Structures are given as C-alpha cells and as structure tokens.
Amino acid sequence: MRTNDNQRKPSVVHVRGLRMRYGSTDVLKGVDLTVAPGEVVALLGPNGAGKTTTIEVLEGFRKRSAGDVEVLGVDPDHGDETWRARLGVVLQSWRDHGRWRVRELLSYLSLCYEPYRARAFDLDELIGSVGLTDHAGKRIGSLSGGQRRRLDVAVGLIGQPDLLFLDEPTVGFDPEARREFHELVRGLTGTTILLTTHDLAEAEKLADRIVILVAGRVVADGTAAELAARIAGEAEVRYRLGGERHVLSVADSTGYVRNLFAEHGTAVDDLEVRRASLEDVYLALVRESELVTA
Ligand SMILES: Nc1ncnc2c1ncn2[C@@H]1O[C@H](COP(=O)(O)OP(=O)(O)OP(=O)(O)O)[C@@H](O)[C@H]1O
User: Fold this and answer.
1) Domain ABC transporter: where (predicted)?
2) Prediction pTM value
3) How far is the CA of 50 from the centre of ligand 1 (A)?
4) Which of 8, 121, 221, 269 could potentially form a cystine with 240 if both were Cys, beta carbons 3.0 to 4.6 Å apart?
5) CA 48–ligand 1 middle distance (angstroms)
6) What is the CA(16)–ligand 1 centre distance, in A?
7) Which residues are bridge partners to 33 per DSSP?
8) Spatial CA neighbour of 72 closest among 168, 163, 173
9) What residues does each domain of the chain span?
10) Weakly modelled stretches of the chain, pLDDT under 70
C-alpha cells in the first residue's frame, strides 16, 4: 500500500449491498467494496461478472437498483459537477480528435477543469509525467497505440483527480507498451486507483488489493498473498538428486527443504519451490464460486 495510515482515513469508495438489475436479470447481487485513499485496487472477474457495471455506478454513469454507495463522500446518483471534476476516467481507448495535436487537446480539456482546481496545475509537467513530451506537437491520429493510451491517461489525470478509474487499460498493448504503462501507473504515487483487468500479472504488479467478482458477487478481497494463502495449502518442490528428477507437493516447503539439505547436502541440485500463482488462485476461486452459483 502506498500510504501507511489508510485505515484511519475515510474511504474514497464505500459500497455496501450494491445491486443492479437489468429487466429481470440481477447483474450485481449485493457487492461490498471499500477503497482507501492512495490505494490501488484491481477488480477482476470473468466476462459478464459485473465489473464495468460496478465502475459505471461509481462514476455516476448508471443508476443502481439498490445499496449504499459513496464515492469521495458523495452518492454518485447526486454527484454535482464539482464532485465529477474530482474523478478521472480512462475508458477503453477512444479514437476521436485524430486531427488535434496532443498538447492542443490537453490544453483545451484543461480549461474545462480550471474552475474546479484546488492546486496549481502545469500542463507540460502532466505531459512529461505520461511520457509524451516528445510527441506533444504531434497529431493524435499519428500516435502509436501505446502513445495513444498515454494520452488517454493524461486525459484521465487532467483534472488532478482524487480517484482514477482505469477500465481494462492495456488491452491490445505489446509487451513493451504494457511495461511502460505499468511504470507510468506505478509512478502516480498518492492517486487512488480502481482498475479492471483480465491480465492477472497486471493486477499483481499494480494493485495493493485484488477484488474478484463472479456473477455479481465479490468472492475474494485481499492482497495477492492473502488470496494465495486461501487456496495454497501445498507448494510444489522440484529438485534433482543423484541424477534423478523429483517433483512433489508438500504442505511445509521450508521444513521439507531444510530436511532435504540436512540429509543430502550439496547432492541436491536444480531446486525450485513453486507456490500458487495469482492465476492458480483466480481460477480456483472462480471455479469454486461458479459451482456454488450454478
Ligand atoms: N445496458 C444493459 N442492459 C442489459 N444488460 C446489461 C447491460 N449492460 C450490461 N449488461 C449485462 O450485465 C452483465 C455484466 O456486464 P458487465 O459489462 O458489467 O460485465 P464485465 O464484468 O465488465 O464484463 P467484461 O469482462 O466482459 O467487460 C452482463 O451479463 C451484461 O450482458
């Protein structure tokens, strides 16, 4: 977590018993979610689990069917312009404004936030912080996918938001652009972020806390290590001894390895201890929850 006294501060997002119904279909069935100031929370879940719906309710884009929701201390159904100006929203990449130049668009958008600004704002600093200084004079239509996404983030940050929403931010990125984007987000120290993603490595890299949503319900909420502890009874230990390969699952891997070395010393070779990855944890939790809700 990027701030150490989050527990004592009021939460940025506070959701209790959120329900959403489209026609006769319940899409959110009582979601509880808390995000503390400065925290980065990743919302994971299979297609159709309700992630975007949840985010859209929090952004005030959708009216919920039931439940208590506060974002920055305000019910999103009653959020005014001042409240809205405190939110940053990065939607899945948009393709408008191709003829505008980067700095020109950001400068124009920045003016819209001027009446709501509490802090000094430097446009070139923002452009620099998303790594677009060398592209500030370029037409938006000529940017690469990764540069375009940086611009999306700059648009999300232009109002100096207290809370930033990132909806599947790196879809379609090549590995280099993805890594650069992750560095960019990790550099936004102090900004509270709620992101959705299908990329588990991304969630693990960026998020302080992971919330897994399945069929409209939160089935897990914790750090990646806490989630792993929920299912990871055993670790896999692999090693080579006297030319023979050994692979086995053990509950106490540290104790096992200690005994192994005490008994065989330097004859043990190629040792690997593998704990459950976030992907193992995620798939186990989703399967378990789908069995319960089936
Ligand atoms: N306007 C709508 N009217 C009716 N049903 C809707 C509407 N919007 C979303 N849904 C349904 O609500 C469910 C949740 O959708 P949502 O987009 O929130 O899921 P998601 O977890 O974000 O999925 P994905 O990972 O595919 O983006 C889906 O079954 C979807 O079909």
Assistant:
1) 13-240
2) 0.81
3) 6
4) 269
5) 5
6) 20
7) 15
8) 163
9) 6-229, 231-293
10) 1-9, 92-96, 231-233, 293-294
